Amino acid sequence: MDALAHVDAYWRAANYLSVGQIYLLANPLLTEPLRPEHIKPRLLGHWGTTPGLNFCFAHLNRIITERDQDMIYVAGPGHGGPAAVAHAWLEGSYTEKYPDVGQDARGMQRLFRQFSFPGGIPSHVAPETPGSIHEGGELGYALAHAYGAAFDNPDLVVACVIGDGEAETGPLAGSWHSNKFLDPACDGAVLPILHLNGYKIANPTVLARIPEEELVKLMEGYGYRPHFVSGEDPEVMHALMAETLDRVFDQIADYRQGRADRLPMIVLRTPKGWTGPREVDGLPVEGTWRAHQVPLTRVRDSPEHLAMLEEWMRSYRPEELFDGRGHPVAEVLETVPEGPLRMSANPHANGGELLRPLVLPDFRDYAVEVKAPARVSTEPTRVLGMFLRDVIAVNPDNFRLMGPDETASNRLSAVFEVTDRAWDAETLPTDENLARGGRVMEVLSEHLCQGWLEGYLLTGRHGLFNCYEAFIHIVDAMFNQHAKWLEACRKIHWRRPIASLNYLLSSHVWRQDHNGFSHQDPGFLDVVVNKKAEVVRVYLPPDANTLLSTADHCLRSRDYVNVIVAGKQPVLDLLPMDEAIAHCTRGLGILEWASSDAGTEPDVVLACAGDVPTLETLAAAALLRECLPELRVRVVNVVDLMRLQPPSEHPHGMSDAEFDTLFTADKPIIFNFHGYPWLIHRLTYRRHGHDNLHVRGYKEEGTTTTPFDMAMLNDIDRFHLVMDVIDRVPGLAERSAHLRQHMMDRRLRARAHTREYGEDPAEIRDWTWPY
Amino acid sequence: MDALAHVDAYWRAANYLSVGQIYLLANPLLTEPLRPEHIKPRLLGHWGTTPGLNFCFAHLNRIITERDQDMIYVAGPGHGGPAAVAHAWLEGSYTEKYPDVGQDARGMQRLFRQFSFPGGIPSHVAPETPGSIHEGGELGYALAHAYGAAFDNPDLVVACVIGDGEAETGPLAGSWHSNKFLDPACDGAVLPILHLNGYKIANPTVLARIPEEELVKLMEGYGYRPHFVSGEDPEVMHALMAETLDRVFDQIADYRQGRADRLPMIVLRTPKGWTGPREVDGLPVEGTWRAHQVPLTRVRDSPEHLAMLEEWMRSYRPEELFDGRGHPVAEVLETVPEGPLRMSANPHANGGELLRPLVLPDFRDYAVEVKAPARVSTEPTRVLGMFLRDVIAVNPDNFRLMGPDETASNRLSAVFEVTDRAWDAETLPTDENLARGGRVMEVLSEHLCQGWLEGYLLTGRHGLFNCYEAFIHIVDAMFNQHAKWLEACRKIHWRRPIASLNYLLSSHVWRQDHNGFSHQDPGFLDVVVNKKAEVVRVYLPPDANTLLSTADHCLRSRDYVNVIVAGKQPVLDLLPMDEAIAHCTRGLGILEWASSDAGTEPDVVLACAGDVPTLETLAAAALLRECLPELRVRVVNVVDLMRLQPPSEHPHGMSDAEFDTLFTADKPIIFNFHGYPWLIHRLTYRRHGHDNLHVRGYKEEGTTTTPFDMAMLNDIDRFHLVMDVIDRVPGLAERSAHLRQHMMDRRLRARAHTREYGEDPAEIRDWTWPY
Lengths: 771, 771
Description:
Two copies of one chain form a homodimer. Chain A is α/β, with parallel strands linked by helices. The N and C termini of chain A lie far apart (88 Å). Helices cover 36% and strands 13% of the residues of chain A. In chain A, the strands form six sheets. A six-stranded parallel β-sheet of chain A has the order 12-9-13-14-16-15, with helices on both faces. The longest helix of chain A is centred in the first third of the chain and has 23 residues, at 234-256. At the A-B interface, α7, α8, α14, α15 and α21 of A face α7, α8, α14, α15 and α21 of B.
């Protein structure tokens, strides 16, 4: 038996096991004729893409074995879940992870039964599937994940199967250009396999229906050397695929060694549902969209369908593939690699196994000196940039900073003192900070930044994604999927913790001075808090030192999504580093120096979260001290938003007693919030003081205007906060009608000033804490 | 003076006006030497892309004039706002829309001053800009908008400038393939102009730095005939652009008449910040990323910068362009088209002007008969499909149905009785329902579906986007931008109302039986309700008849985003059509037949929104009637979610008195909700009864399992609701401990059943209202 016969045996075994998973409850080896009671009552799975995935698996195994090639497999058409599971079972890694699913008839029966079955496993390639870093639910991110996995893994090849459905998505279409960001010397290689089976759920696909010459140009235009493997006769296709893969891996070696400047890719054209039923009930199935899910649907009721299923399964000749006990025979396993070279057991696909902690410089060394609170302004992200610069310097192959062309705009440019932007395309003499292997990944695609970072993290590395706040919504859906991946992994004993996905959202809603309304959206936080509390964290550090402390904490954490919102514009330094650390550790606290309740029960609580709302709150506190000196005002700043929830809702949640101690149970609370105000209500609606809580925040008003005009448009400005206090503290409304009017006048004057001069009044621009 | 000299004069005038907008408060015609007080205090704008945009405008005007060509202009690099404004002012349409900005020196000064100035206009191409259907904030959607505008507009050419930054985004990369969905006979043409000025904010761009031969292949691979216009000498470039445009418009004519099967496109390669300062402070600016925003930043402080600005502005020779009064001279206006042929006044770019109401068949004709409530099941979307079929039939050029390959999966397939899927690529004999000009647009890209529909609506037509609920998050950011567009348009007197953007979210969180966790996310509603109440509407019709009534209402509405969540799986028919209409008109109401409070004050309110939660609520009500017959239970169903808000928050909001009448002010309310439970709290936290409100909903638990197991995983199932009632109705906990245990046992039995048999118990699957 030659190598291709072994590959074919493996392929047939994987196909057999895939069909078994979709259909069978019992009789896994077909030791008796199929009967209706062997069939699952609900047939839930996707056959169409599966034989193609199995074909690639089988052939890549031969390459791994022959070349000792470190390789992982990203299955873009991840609804072909049965393929990945079959593969892991054949390679033995499924049984290693799940010992009750043994490599024998009983284990095979369990394998079949559990698939897409209550209490069993998902129908897609999922976190539960050994060897996967890529959930196959939402399409579009396979190639970005593959490149993310390849960065800084010089010996790795990431084989990435891209379905022709997925290829229609925008994110995938944009991902092809990732090759301009790959360093042949320090990064691994990606082998895209565009699998044209011609159909998605109910339609032909675009790339399957354009002239082949156009497809060649498209792939060459994307910067690849395409190789076509087309056909349906298994014997011919095995020979063609093997020969192509040999050529392709030679070309990858050439690329890695600088002898070729383009990566190869493969276009694999096979029928959808290949080797399945050709025709069912008089309609063509194999090679059409009808093969997408379950080709034979009435197997339990129709003796004819049942017979077709049996014939189909027996066409793989299971008796040649499994021994009497149900164990795969030697011929099937001939091309299966050893130990961690098995794609289903490769540690890169369980990144926590390879995770090296970041070496972190002491963030205290980057502290800004704060002699007195709120007197001097600093750009927080610029300070963070210096910390990140040194993080990059001491972790040269274990950390990447992603951003859609905004790293400098977000004022993190200190990083360019030690590294460059990754770039493997033409450079010109006027270029700055572009180089192969640069640690900063900039491309004008939030999807690519997110996808690369996910792939990088899932294979055991670290990173941070800096983004304009409004445009992080572009990856809402990707965040959702990654959070779900993390949620699922918490219940999977063999998935090892990975570094958290860290977002730094800067250029935020309150400071879009020259971009305006389209750039104003703080709603990503609302999306984030919908995910399980165990995996999400939200921080709004109000100044440079709290940002440093928060960033250090996030970079050390595991298995979370951390969202940090921090401004790039100068804001007043509030806390010396030791107090900043204490404040961040508590997650929220009273700013004693800004409060006038002197440890007694206050008349009103001014709460705030976010840098601009905190500034306005402080200015309001100062106005109140000046104009209503007898009023006892408490200022509470919140850094860790999740502290507001009850402990039953979030691990960071504080008890009602703590909440009441800080916010009181019965005094008015004016909460000045960075984002949409309802989020604060949502987090606190069960608190005693909730009925007294009045939240200001972004209420979807904005344009290109001055910072203070933006605050006024949304009523988060200092003058309006004073008016809110007057309106809500019992008895104050009557006494302070004149002050209220005065505040209103000052707002009008401020607005008139900006409209006259195009900038905020100096006393507002230059305001510092006066006490 | 020949035509190209006129084009050049126009271009210089537009460039002059663009620089003036960025810099000047006064002295608009440079009638005196520039002084610091003529300069704005804050310089906020984007010069880099602007001269290229102006160049295209100028040349396209010649084509329009010479060929009488109906054309609109989509400016992908929309932060080049000064260009679009300059153009509208030169064409006179700015003054028509805003009479106080006249075509004279005073008007020019106002034009300059207002730009990116408090109380003025946004810095981007925005709804305020005449002639635009495309906000230039978030990048990625220009080409999709352009195609959307072209559909069913056979005489229109949509010129679409795509910045090389935007070209890196996924959505844009995927949009090129829109040409496979264009019908040369019935649709207009799109002319993509890929503008390679080489840089984004701080980086070179990918497409500017790949070999030209690769770029040619890429464009040919996308199915276009590329034409290159490259250089920087204005005279040479004018000749080259004019000659190229003549050829290109000939090719478009050939394409339209079936003599060519590929659309042309142009690659325009010019320096970033073309004609601006070449070098500032010893650093190159023109032709680099430094030209992105404001090339000279210290104009007010530095006499040298001030002089450079004056020299720059005078380089356009304003004295040749404007007469003494500041009006553009005849030579400048020579190529400006007449009336509605001006791109800044084209009615397609103010789609409401062209809007024809949909012809709507009577939705009552599609009603399912309901002899008794909740006895018979129907697939709601299948019924809707019949209504949509006839909508399509009687509106053959005014309505499109978009969906990412899910129209059949979402069970709207009746539409294929009268139309096909739009398809202009290869077809095979086995294909079904593919044809040029099909009214159904299916591509596996939510971005394209959304972008096409936006472009279609903004040019005055109608449509509906059907999507899997979880994956609508893919277009969260696009929804945000469209909602912001609608919000802004409400304040713009000349923007005419357009048809609402209608979403049908099906294949929802509760019925992902074979897809599982990755397909479970009802959080789009949370994103939607962050936008201004004036433009967002959310409906959860619980059955077929309420879905029909809701859909009819939405299709008639204007200027909203309507989100309809409705299942495709069979659900019990609750209401005969007349009651369904009344129920939808109220937006919520008591289901009398399911309630046992007989018009008196109830002991508990069971509220519900969404089809599956409503089913479980009804089953719980039946269980309570059986087991606790003395308990007075009120069942309230909510269709229009916005009714829950106070009227101060949303126009649909109901008064506290109404709310109390329905929900009581003091009785326990168990609210079974389709989405994340916090949304209901967020909408109702100010209500009297809020402290008694207990919400069940999706709490991020799920996998591939049975429908009832999904309900149990998230505690929205009938048994758990009964337990909730027992726990919350005063005095019931003690009396009904046994019943509570019984409910718990029934849950356990149901779960054990699904895990044994792989399907829900028959008494749950087949449950109907028993009274």
